Amino acid sequence: MRKPVVLITGAGGEIGHGLIDRLAQDGSRGVITLDVNPLEPDLARLVTREFQGSILDTSLLDRIVAEYEVDLVFHLAALLSTRSEFTPMAAHEVNVGGTLNLLEFAQKQGESHGRPVVFLYPSSIAVYGMPDLQTKARAGEVKEDQYTHPSTMYGCNKLYCEQLGGYYTRHYKQLARDTVSRKVDFRSVRFPGLISAVTVPSGGTSDFAPEMIHAAARQEAYACFVRPDTRIPFMAMPDGVEALLRLAAAPRERLGRTAYNVGAFNPSAEEVRQVVLGAFPGATITYTVDEARQGIVDSWPADVDDSAARTDWGFAPNYDFERAFSEYLIPTIRRRYQK
Ligand code: SER
After folding, report:
1. Closest by CA position to 14, among listed 102, 99, 122, 119
2. Domain membership of residue 143 as a residue range
């Protein structure tokens, strides 16, 4: 008898940390994980089975199909936007090839147990490409179908994989002679920059905000790599995890879109700096602008319109800018570095 479980890829990453905690608290399903690196012992303890390996290893994915009944996938594994610009071929291979492997995996799983496989995919504000700062300022809250002309490899990968997911859900093998039973139920959120109190991101371009906070808490000087007036949307990690769980639980017929914007607050870099200085008065936070990374952040919208997510599946973040810092980030980060 195969056992019904949830699969999380990239489980050791930032989103995986919060997600595993939540799923373990809930306890209704076993969690199996796939990550190229071993999970930290605290996380490993919470999961049913940890596979260490790559999403590019299809024989490993076949083994998982044979052994487990997966009906929910959180496909989190990816190379983020800064990292991807240094190794675009590897980024494409992992971000697109890996996602295609997981979609095939989900289809096979569904065929083998007969139920749809709900497939959660974190997309990103990186799918947008604002042509210039004037347009960015004028556009304000961007809707899902506007300005989808990404300037990064990562953004291209995310946008294309949203489309691939929609294809598997609605049109997979549409010309097959025998009717194909489509088993993938793909759902995607376009995350803003996520800020976690328990992990520090690596390889992203929205990293300036979380890096600033964690550096201040560690009493390390930090040089922010974007201008003070730089503005993009952000979200506290617990709201990001909650968004994935809520979208996963939504009735399919309520979902009018493949990919949904979600947002929470959108401070400028200087507004983040001021709050961090307030919480850690001795902190040294300066600016050394990296023009290339600045260009990427400038191409992302200043804000997103997330009304579709609110209407279709009840998205409602708990943390605005003030609460994210006062009730989640600052106290949790303080505790973390005091240990
Ligand atoms: N946080 C991501 C990055 O900076 C955007 O999705 O790459």
Report:
1. 122
2. 3-195+233-264+302-319
